[in-house]
Amino acid sequence: MEYKDIVSSKKKNIALVAHDHMKSMLIDWVLRNKDILKNHNLCGTGTTATLISEKTGLDVFAFKSGPIGGDQQLGSRIVEGNVDFMIFFWDPLEAQPHDPDVKALNRIGVLYNIPIANNVSTADFLLSSPFMNSEYNRQVIDYDKLSNDRKSLVIE
Asked: What does UniProt list as catalytic (predicted)?
């Protein structure tokens, strides 16, 4: 299997996402880490990004709300190599009407080898990592070559 490197710069592209019952927890976490996060590019799904921006004064680019396409928009940025890691506080105790979208977003994050924090402890570990302030080389399976290899294996 062949891999390609995606290099994240010192200034990270960080996605911030939270389900309704977890939004206040994410906002509190962002407020505690505002001095670090202000030095990075922030984005998030609709309501979450808007609330974080309003409550913290940080500039957070807002995609659509998750259930109406924001999860897919964010997923496409991950595929393009434009998200370095994701903080996604999802609600483990409540079913989500857009659960397939949530699973797809997490799946794409794993597929493209980005760090994903689903809780405060993991988010704290990510921000305290020495990679936070340096470039990081993330290896990703080269799916274009994998697809071409599979095409060449097809027997007609």
From this structure: 71 (proton donor/acceptor)
Helix 46-56 with 23-32: angle, nearest 10 deg: 40
Strand-by-strand arrangement of the 13-18 sheet: 60-62, 41-44, 13-18, 85-89, 116-117
Task: Tell me the per-residue pLDDT of 86-111, one tens digit each, with 9 for 90 and over.
Answer: 999 987 767 676 677 788 999 999 99
Pick the CATH number of 3-153 from 1.10.540.10, 3.30.540.10, 3.40.50.410, 3.40.50.1380: 3.40.50.1380
**Is 124 annotated as catalytic?**
no
Q: pLDDT tens-digit profile of 38-54?
A: 999 999 999 999 999 99
19 is in an annotated binding site: yes
- Among the options 5, 71, 99, 124, which is catalytic? 71
pLDDT exceeds cutoff 80 at 16: yes
pTM over 0.85: yes
